[in-house]
Amino acid sequence: CEGRACGDASAASTPYARSPEELAAALPQWTLAYRRLHLDNSTAVRVAAAKAMGIVAGGAGKGLGKHLKRLAPSWWFAQHDPDETVARAARSAFDQVFSTDAKRANALLFAHAEIFGQALENLTIKSPGDMPHKEGSADEQAERHDRLLASTVACLLLFSFTSFDLWAERAEAPILGACTGVLRLVERGFG
């Protein structure tokens, strides 16, 4: 797997260069596509999607702001994909777009409600048949379901560790309430 076909950022960014305005205009459609692509059964597709995220989101500049809340959950879950290659590509894209610890923390705080909301929804999916995307064999659906649950649990753990100090500094009561809601769901056995 080489070059543009597998999402090589350097190869893809030059011939397909677009203005920040064009990339920002594509973000609503990209958000919908990325929600599906980050769960694809193919590791190569998930890696390419993560690299494309860096190109699209990074290239959109300030236009990313009004779409970040819709993009953040899938992007954060992809950073915790059980496949380390996928997770590394998604983290690299996130770090490229949000280049400092403070920017990364602020992006997460900005979209915290959406991330926790999607996490709660993910944790209530009891079987592969309950997933919104039902394509593929039963084994592929089960693999996608397992990956979704694993990435959700991992992202919640890391989200709480990386952001708790900043939340406490800002006394973010809604975030702490969301954490409490997640913990209650876990205690009840996701049901």
Tell me what you see in this structure:
This protein is mainly α and 191 residues long. It is built from nine helices and no strands. The longest helix is centred in the C-terminal third of the chain and has 33 residues. It is globular, with a radius of gyration of 17 Å. The N terminus is likely disordered.
Q: Span between N and C termini? A: 42 Å
Largest sheet: none
Strand content: under 5%
Please give the number of β-strands. Answer: 0
Number of discrete helical segments: 9
Q: Can you give the helix content as a percent range?
A: over 70%
Shape: globular
Evaluate the radius of gyration. Answer: 17 Å
Structural class: mainly alpha
pLDDT < 50 stretches: 1-15
Write down the overall mean pLDDT.
81
Q: What is the string of helix and strand elements?
A: HHHHHHHHH
Task: Give a nutshell description of this structure.
The chain is mostly helical. It has nine helices and no strands.
Helix and strand topology:
Layout: H1 9-13, H2 20-37, H3 43-59, H4 68-78, H5 84-97, H6 101-110, H7 112-123, H8 138-170, H9 173-187
Helix pairs in contact: 2-3, 3-5, 4-7, 7-8, 7-9
Keywords for this structure?
mainly alpha, 191 residues, globular, single chain, disordered N terminus
